Structure to design on (430 residues):
């Protein structure tokens, strides 16, 4: 069952029709290769290519009896082909078809996710430049630290998304291997030429060596890449959730006309899109753990991975596609409040400039430890008394023995903190 949030393009990849078409394509390619080797008569391969087909309901009917999906598929195809069906699946094992076709499906899914990431980069770049000079406070441990700009925060997301794009391209390459090597990978009844032939025509590479299956570290890398992408989306969504808190309200999700936030409280505007993304990321991360568990199988293969992959591969690709499209729209429509950012910046009455004071005093020859104590003593008074930090510094006779009034004023210059933002943007965006 395709989840309701799935986009059409991604959903079509995992439809039974597409899956069986891939199986049939590989079976026919194998027959073509065997015909080139002289193992299938010309008239038989002609008949197979002309008549081979399937009916999904018939496959399901046969599978209820055989309890084996590939056999049910082959039986159904055989009913279309007739006597020459004896040449189909000759020397193969089920995983030759399953794993090779799965590589094709996962590469198709990767192409969609790669396109999503490319669109996300475009939106992030636009927003980063839009808010390049929008000053806000940077926070560490959730506490005010020093000034940044909102554009710099978005630029961090851009750089991370670019790494995710590189990871996804690599994962697509890692998963793009097929195998047509028989029951335990020895080519006992199917020569390596067939594998080369099938993979070349399926935009895949032959696995250098396989058992009955493609080794599942490839799948684990693919799923882990999806988990990292989902975790990045979770990170961006979590930041938006924090910025939307009533006490902060520096940014928030777009709230459309007629939208409702709560069944009980009409005033509510909740970050439901971001919360949804954080929740879905947990599912994708969990699926990556299952993929890691699938690496260790008995000997040349057991079937413990199969049932898992029928869930985690479609679900994870569909979820990540959905998540990326949701976060793209969320960021594109994000409501940003620069005035609130400035108001919040000054809520701590200048405490965010403490490091500048510390360094200015040490440059006068005072030990770091002594300078730290001087500045911290006044900073703690600001926390307790709600006083103005600059005024306390100017009134501190010990500190003013080392600094002039102008030197103190320079320490409270926001532009000092942001003077390299052009260089940072050049590093990120080129």
């Amino acid at each position: 069952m395709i989840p309701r949030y799935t986009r059409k393009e991604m959903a079509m990849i995992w439809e039974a029709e597409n899956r069986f078409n891939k199986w049939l394509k590989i079976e026919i390619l194998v027959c073509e290769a065997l015909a080139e080797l002289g193992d299938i008569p010309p008239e038989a391969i002609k008949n197979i290519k002309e008549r081979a087909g399937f009916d999904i309901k018939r496959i399901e009917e046969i599978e209820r009896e055989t309890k084996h999906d590939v056999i049910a598929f082959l039986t159904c195809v055989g009913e279309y082909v007739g006597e020459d069906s004896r040449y189909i699946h000759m020397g193969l094992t089920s995983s030759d078809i399953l794993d090779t076709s799965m590589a094709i499906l996962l590469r198709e899914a990767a192409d969609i996710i790669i396109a999503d990431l490319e669109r996300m980069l475009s939106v992030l770049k636009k927003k980063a430049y839009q808010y390049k000079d929008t000053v806000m406070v940077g926070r560490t441990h959730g506490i005010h630290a020093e000034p940044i700009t909102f554009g710099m925060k978005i630029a961090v997301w851009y750089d991370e998304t670019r790494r995710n794009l590189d990871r996804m391209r690599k994962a697509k390459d890692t998963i793009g291997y097929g195998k047509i090597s028989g029951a335990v990978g020895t080519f006992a009844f199917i020569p390596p030429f067939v594998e080369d032939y099938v993979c070349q025509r399926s935009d895949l590479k032959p696995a250098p060596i396989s058992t009955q299956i493609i080794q599942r570290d490839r799948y684990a890398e693919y799923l882990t890449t999806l988990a990292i992408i989902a975790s990045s989306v979770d990170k961006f969504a979590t930041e938006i959730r924090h910025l939307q808190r009533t006490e902060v309200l520096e940014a928030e999700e777009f709230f459309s006309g007629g939208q409702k936030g709560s069944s009980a409280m009409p005033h509510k505007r909740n970050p439901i899109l971001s919360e949804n993304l954080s929740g879905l990321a947990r599912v994708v991360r969990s699926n990556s753990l299952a993929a890691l568990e699938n690496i260790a199988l008995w000997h040349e293969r057991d079937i413990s991975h199969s049932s898992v992959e029928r869930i985690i591969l479609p679900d994870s690709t569909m979820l990540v596609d959905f998540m990326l499209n949701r976060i793209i729209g969320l960021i594109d429509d994000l409501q940003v409040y620069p005035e609130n950012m400035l108001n919040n910046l000054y809520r701590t009455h200048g405490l965010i400039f403490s490091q500048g004071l510390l360094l200015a005093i040490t440059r006068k020859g005072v030990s770091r430890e002594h300078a730290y104590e001087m500045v911290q003593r006044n900073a703690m008074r600001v926390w307790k008394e709600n006083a103005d930090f600059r005024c306390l510094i100017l009134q501190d006779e010990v500190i003013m023995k080392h600094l002039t009034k102008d030197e103190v004023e320079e320490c409270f210059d926001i532009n000092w903190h942001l003077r390299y933002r052009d260089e940072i943007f050049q590093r990120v965006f080129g």
Q: What stands out?
A: The first helix runs from residue 8 to 13. The chain has a mean pLDDT of 96. Residues 94-249+265-344 form a domain with the Fumarase C; Chain A, domain 2 fold (CATH 1.20.200.10).
